[in-house]
Write a structure and sequence with these properties.
2 copies of one chain form a homodimer. By secondary structure, the first copy, chain A, is α/β, with parallel strands linked by helices. Chain A has helices at residues 5-14, 18-29, 33-42, 62-75, 89-92, 97-104, 125-140, 155-162, 176-186, 202-215, 236-253, 255-284, 290-297, 303-321; strands at residues 50-56, 80-86, 112-118, 144-150, 165-170, 191-194, 225-227. In chain A, 57% of the residues lie in helices and 13% in strands. In chain A, β6, α10 (202-215) and β7 (225-227) form a beta-alpha-beta unit. In chain A, α2 runs antiparallel to α7 and α12 packs across α14 (303-321). The longest helix of chain A has 30 residues, at 255-284.
Chain lengths: 322, 322
């Protein structure tokens, strides 16, 4: 690869070349500075896509629901990009969420783009990488961007920081694993879906969710609960209507502008932190500090003091580099 | 609270005052600089405790097993501190892991100390806060420190960065939720426990785990698999023997020294990153940048460029403050 390749890619991207889109996404995914610079160059073309985050526990039917949403949006004439965030694929090498969506329907529709991303557990990695990919898809011109992520731990909260509207899927009868995460995740949900609503226990689950919503802090928007059977596309059009209503609410109430401003600020903090973290790691693995780390190992120094030395050196180094 | 209180607490801590230990832990947990400084002051007394991380999915019986380990170590004359890390308690306000351990046996034994900590989902928060608390417990003189954490997402990987020996608990018949996380977590496990080994499917699980271990990269230490019924203390002494064997392996092979050095370096990186992150957040919420964020919202600036400005201002500010 020559040094000018990313610039060529940006031009090809602007001309609508899908291979260029895929290449730039790969650059971003692999943490290459050129990918982030390209995203920066293309950022002026963003701002028209609407971003829906889709999260929920494993087995809730996220891929099936995503598939149904793609169909529904396409039927309304909108183009759709999907970012399927897969925390395990980097480790297992198995089928990714994106593969699973593709397997459901053989999408050869040019109005649909599906991409899997592995997170690799890097802190802030999901948000930085996926956030940049969302900007690329937005700049490319997709009307709808769906971010699908497995609800384990931090990732599902992060998706709430990237999406305009966050959809939380639950399924009846999954008991205590939901119990463990429900409270925190409920706060980020704008629309609740009880999928596999033909299973026993669906009514109980809807009632429980309704009660939890009543107990939680009152908000100007009360998340609706939509019962779907995504595998049969049952009620998924009603779900799209609810997503549209939330979008309208965000616009009418001014809440959308507030959310976007908050999201911008957080993205900038994450990007700045990543810049400085890379410097910190470089400084901390510098052989020049070996004596200091030996002192730490011998308890002649403490981690707070050593960290202050590292922070100061990082700052000095950053200024020199800049 | 007067400004000198933390220093008094350090003196009382050194004299063995348990209330002072609890107060300093609270300081650390609440992210107070005074708590971290006290930890730094006391760091010279650390280095004698042995740290075991205990992780696994919800319902695997971690609290019950922790309880059995406390009993076992006490029977051998060792003092035990437990840090029960509870990702949900900050949100739900419900019973914490620590409460659950205490409910199992009414510990009024002065050789046992049990403490719950909430993580609040802050990135790197588990490692920084729990790491500092482990140092305090070590300095206080506990022989064994057990860190118990629910295995959801990033936290279980983090516990591997804090512990000398990491114990992963599984239970028969929990199917695909384990599937999703097993691969990554297996890499950090030094000892595997199949708990509730009297349930059907235990043999299958042991066989599956053995196969996964064979398929994974060969390591100088092969994690043993111990079948327990923790609620009946069945085989928990054999488990303690395995933990002792791993400790011996770490010492004999030199791997323990390597791990500790790596852990020190990571802790320093985390602490330095936290110092700089706080500055970044302060800079990013400074009204002086409002125009820049307005440009970002209007797509006249891009996030990469704005982040560079924030990083540079952070560095300038850090130097002025220092």
């Amino acid at each position: 690869m020559t040094a000018t390749a990313p610039r060529d890619l940006v031009e090809r991207f602007r001309a609508g070349d899908r291979a260029a889109l895929a290449r730039l996404i790969s650059f971003v995914e692999n943490g290459k500075a050129a990918g982030m610079r390209a995203m920066g160059d293309l950022y002026g073309s963003t701002g028209t896509a609407y971003v829906v985050g889709i999260t929920g526990p494993p087995g809730a039917g996220k891929s099936t629901l995503t598939n149904a949403l793609i169909r529904g949006y396409r039927a309304r004439g909108q183009t759709v990009a999907v970012v399927a965030v897969d925390p395990s694929s980097a480790l297992t090498g198995g089928a990714t969420l994106g593969d699973r969506i593709r397997m459901l329907d053989n999408f050869d529709d040019p109005g649909v783009y599906i991409r899997s991303m592995a997170t690799r557990g890097e802190m802030g990695g999901l948000s930085i990488g996926v956030g940049a990919v969302v900007h690329l898809l937005d700049a490319y011109g997709f009307d709808m961007i769906l971010i699908e992520t497995v609800g384990v731990g931090q990732d599902e909260v992060d998706v709430g920081e990237l999406a305009d509207t966050t959809l939380l899927i639950q399924v009846p009868g999954t008991g205590d694993s939901i119990q463990a995460i429900k409270a925190g995740v409920l706060e980020i949900a704008d629309v609740l879906v009880v999928n596999k609503a033909d299973l026993p226990g669906a009514n109980d689950m809807v009632r429980d969710l309704r009660m939890m919503l009543r107990l939680s802090e009152s908000r100007p928007w009360t998340p609706p609960i939509v019962e779907t059977v995504a595998s049969e596309h049952r009620n998924t059009d009603a779900l799209i209507d609810k997503l549209d209503q939330h979008r309208q609410f965000l616009e009418d109430s001014g809440e959308g502008r507030i959310r976007r401003a908050r999201r911008d600020r957080r993205e900038v903090v994450r990007l700045a932190r990543r810049q400085l973290t890379r410097e910190i790691e470089a400084v901390a693995s510098d052989a020049g500090l070996d004596d200091l780390f030996t002192s730490l190992a011998n308890r002649d120094a403490d981690p707070i003091t050593v960290a202050s030395v590292v922070a100061r050196r990082t700052v000095d180094r950053f200024r020199q580099d800049g």
